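re the bet — no i am not wrong, look at it urself. input seq straight from the record:
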Amino acid sequence: MIRNLRRSAIGLGQRDNLVRRRAVECIAMGMIGDGALALVEPRGHAELWQKGPVNWQRLVRPFVEHPAMIRCAGALGIALGLWLALRQERATSP
């Protein structure tokens, strides 16, 4: 009986780890895609996020006015997304 409980606990741990790795991978894919959009169409991408409360508009406005800032943020997002994805790959390699 104790062996069965241990096996169940180990199985749960592996499943939780798989869920965590998949979540991180999804975040990485989102970061890479968002960064690519920011590089290709910086102003349009920022304008999409400009709607909302006044404080939010103030936060987004400099990005709309300065596309180079959006491109830099996009490149950084791609780099971080790739780092996360590659980190996941290394963690699962034998």
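see?? The radius of gyration is 20 Å. told u. also The CA atoms of residues 23 and 89 lie 13 Å apart. so pay up
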